[in-house]
Every structure is written in structure tokens, then in C-alpha cells.
Amino acid sequence: MSTILDGLSLGAIYALIALGYTMVYGIAKMLNFAHGDIIMVGAYAIFVTLASTNLLLALVVSILLCAVTGVVVEKLAYKPLRSASPLAVLITAIGVSYFLQGTAQLIFGSKSQPITLPSLGSIQIGNFQVELRTVITLGVGALLMVGLTLFVKCTRTGRAMLAVSEDKGAAQLMGVNVNRIIMITFAIGSTLAACASFFYLLQIPSVSPTLGAMPGIKAFAAAVIGGIGSIPGAMVGGVLLGLVEKICTSIPVLNPYTTAIEFGLLIVILLVRPIGLLGVRRREKV
Amino acid sequence: MALLEVKDLTVFYGVIQALKGISFDVNKGEIVTLIGANGAGKTTTMQSVMGLIPSKSGTVVYNGVDITKKPCHSIVHLGMTQVPEGRRVFQELTVYENLLMGAYTEKSKAKIKRDIEEIYEWFPRLGERKKQVAGTLSGGEQQMLAMGRAMMSHPELLMLDEPSMGLSPLLVDQVFEIIKNFQKNGTTILLVEQNAGKSLAISDRAYVLENGQIVLSGTGDELLKSDMVKKAYLGG
Ligand SMILES: Nc1ncnc2c1ncn2[C@@H]1O[C@H](COP(=O)(O)OP(=O)(O)OP(=O)(O)O)[C@@H](O)[C@H]1O
Ligand SMILES: [Mg+2]
Questions:
Q1: Which residue of A has its CA nearest to B72?
Q2: Which of these, A17, A183, A246, A262, is most buried using a 10 Å CB contact count?
Q3: pLDDT tens digits, residue range A172-181?
Q4: B94: which DSSP letter?
């Protein structure tokens, strides 16, 4: 039972990060490999601000810094390459990733540093003792995902995002400023990553320049499992991967192979259904 | 003064020159048609006028404003839009959501609601299918949706790129009827068509495009009677 809850909450973290990958892929048609490092930026933002203020303010600072970083990276690094080959964009994204890690290393050193978060304790639900951090991660994560779904489905900007992801040219003919929509997408993706980074710190309370790498790559796998470009897909993929990870680590025989099993799952799903669980096959434009 | 004035427009795809200096104009209230064979450069013309593909040289002036270098979305805000070749409705959005996208430039919710009702009156089939995902509509229904969606922004100038493509003869007549109605309601129309006979019949003026150049122009009737058009586009 607690394994399942732990899995779901880890899944929520992966899902929040995966949403950033999938939205950027859907709308800007690029793989933003630097997305994982936004988590690291968010974690250091909390690390630094927590020293002088309370947690809530630290969270706000972290979200703002992540959103700004995401938007600035898009503007400086990706926007000039809008009509370049996908390979050039991919290599640039990897470059941005190293740049962010390098910058963090310059400022904070390369060693991992512990971070002390207020301890949250646990609560009693029925017969089970559940950690409060798990409940918060799950609750807030679910809320954010519902919010995002409603935003995309029911607002003018959200619909424009769907339209751009399907057909940039046709969206422009409706009067949609594609560059603005891409910018908003990066801001939203980075905001979700900032939230994820806080939840991640609740699980593993330490910061390092490469902190974003592992959750980043797993969330990317989650996005691909769910069907990259699909928002519900990223949620399903994230939760699935989180569950698999926690279940595997709770079974002693499987524990050492957890990561291998996770990526094995990715391979199997791609073999069976190359577009991912909820991916849509788009007709190629003529 | 012409509503749309295109002068010496050239467009290159890499080293291939698709438009070799095209000039034409569209006056307020007219239906103007570009006809031409496959690959003549009609779609290229429409897209570069609209700012979707860059031109190498030449100017496009709309309502006295030079829009040659303007991005597509800001041209739409000036009151001009296009039903693109192949319709390009948003396949994963519903009919209703597609129409909402068409009203992207409109801020008033009440007005959008009224306009959508009006589109449903024009195209009852769309009203019956408002919740249906556009990708599952028939070709004809998608064409109606593409036209309705474009009308949602109340364009002063509407460009249509082969609206009759792939439709049954009955629907083709209906499409031309709708275009004439658009004109009656005050919309200026720039039309691209392969169906020379029907489009020339409803056009005030027309241009014939060949290999990226305009080779002939005149009123719809003049071109219908011209030997060259008869031979090349009306099958004798
Ligand atoms: N993206 C592109 N890259 C290279 N060449 C292109 C591209 N798009 C069009 N062309 C070429 O430009 C020329 C004009 O094409 P265009 O699509 O404008 O023709 P069209 O008159 O609209 O034809 P159709 O009636 O078949 O739609 C053609 O020779 C075509 O091969
Ligand atoms: Mg064409």
C-alpha cells in the first residue's frame, strides 16, 4: 500500500517533468534535453533562498527563476535555430544542458550539498501510516495536472497551443503568434519542472549540479512511453514509470535491476507501440 | 485604390524560382481568380502574399500598408486571411473548437457566440456536428469548416486556395454559391482554382498563371471567351 502511494507520488514527479518535454516537443517540435537541468536550477534556487526566507517564498523564487531560465534559453539558444535542422537543435539543447550544469558548478562547486527542509512527518490514513510529503506531492501534482488539462482545453491560449502543435501554418492563419505560444510553452514547462524539483528534494534532500540528469532522463522516457507530444500521455507514462520504480525497489530480488527494468519497459512499449501509449499518429503533411 | 496590390513578387525555393515577378491587384468587393496548371505557382503566390513563405523581392500592399515583410499572424490581424490548400482544419479539435480558433482575433465572447450561430446557419451540417472531431469529417464537411473557420475572423479579404478540390459536382456548385454569398456580404475574394469554367463565371477579373508568371488577365467573361484559356483550361 505505501509502496503504491510512494510510486504514485514519484510518478507525479516524473509526470510533471515529462509534461515539459512533451509540450515543447508537441509545439516547438524539438527535444529539449536541457529540460532536466531546469530541475537542478529550481533545486538550487530553493537551496539558496531557504537560507534566508521561508519555504513558500523559496518556492515562488524557484518557480520564477525556472520560468525565466526556460524562456531565456528558448529565446537565446533555440529561437535563432527555428528553421535549422533538428540535429542542430538537438546538439544545441545538449550544449545548453552542459552550460547550465557548468554554471551551477562554477557557483556552487561540484560536490553534492545537503539541504534541510522542514520535516513534514506523517499522517494516519485508516490503518496506514503515510508520509505527508507523499500526500502533498500526489495532491499538488494531481492538481497541477488537472489545471494544465483545463487550461489547454478551455482557454484561448491553450487551444492555440493545440493548434500550433498540429499545424503551425494554419494556426498562423488564425492570427496566432507562434513565437509567443512557444515562449508560453517553455514558461509553463519550466514552472512544472520547478514544482517537480521541490517534490524531488522532499524525497532526496540534497543538491548537486547534475541533480537533474536522472529524473530528467527518466521523465523523458516517461514522455516517450506515454507518446511524446501527448499531454495525457506524459501523465500516464510518468505515473507508470514511478510505480514500476517503487515496486521494483521494494522487491529485494529486483531492486538492483530497477533502472534496467524501467528502460526495458520503454523498449518493450516502443516495440509494441512505436508512438507510445497515448500517442497519435499524425498524417504526414503533403 | 486597390485593396491588395502585389508588385513584381519573386519567390525562390532554394535555387528554384517559383515566382518570376508577379503583379496583380484586387479591388474592394471583387472576386478575383488566379487560374493555372499544376505547379504554376498559385499556392506559392497565396502563401507568400500571406507571409507564410518569404519573398525574395517585390512588394505586397494591403489597404495602403506595406505587408511584404510582415509575419502571417499580424497580417491576419489587419483583416485578411486564407483558406489554405488542402483545408488544413485542426484534425484533433472539434468543429466548435475549430470555429473558436477562427475567432482567435476576436476578444468579445458574446460576439464569438453570435458568429458561431451564424456559421451554423450558413452550414447546417457543421451545426449538427459541432462536437465531432474535425479529422473525422468528410472532405466536403472539412471544406465547409475551413471556410466557416476563416469567416469567423470577418476578413475584409478572403483568399481561397482550390476550395473545390476533391468535391463532388454538387458540392462544387455549392462552394461557388457560398463564395458568391461571401462577396454579397461584403467580403472581397481572391480565389485560386483549377476549375476554370466555374470560377471564371463568378469572377469579376482573373489572371492566368504559367510557370511563375502571369501570362493573361482580364474580366471573367473575357477570359472565358479567350482561345488560350479555352484550349488550356476548359478542354477545347
Ligand atoms: N516547399 C517547396 N520546395 C521546393 N519547391 C516547391 C515547394 N513548394 C512548391 N514548390 C515548387 O514550386 C512550384 C509552384 O508550386 P505551387 O504549389 O505554387 O503550384 P500550384 O500552382 O499551387 O499547383 P497546384 O495546382 O498543383 O496546387 C512547383 O514547381 C513546385 O514544385
Ligand atoms: Mg496549389
A1: A172
A2: A17
A3: 999 999 999 9
A4: B
A155 interface with B at CB cutoff 8 Å: no
pLDDT digits (tens, 9 = 90+) for B80-126: 999 999 999 999 999 999 999 999 999 999 999 999 999 999 899 99
Domain count, chain A: 1
B28 alpha carbon – ligand 2 mean position (Å): 24
Q: Provide the whole-model pTM.
A: 0.91
Under 8 Å CB pairs connecting chains A and B tally to 68
Whether ipTM > 0.95 holds is no
> Is A169 domain-assigned?
yes
Range of the domain at A44: 2-107+128-272
The domain spanning residue A151 has which CATH number? 1.10.3470.10
Q: Does A174 contact B88 at a Cβ distance shorter than 8 Å? A: no
Please check whether residue A279 lies inside any domain of the structure: no
Q: For residue A202, is it within any domain?
A: yes
Structure confidence by residue, pLDDT tens digits, A225-277: 999 989 999 999 999 999 999 999 999 999 899 999 999 999 999 999 988 88
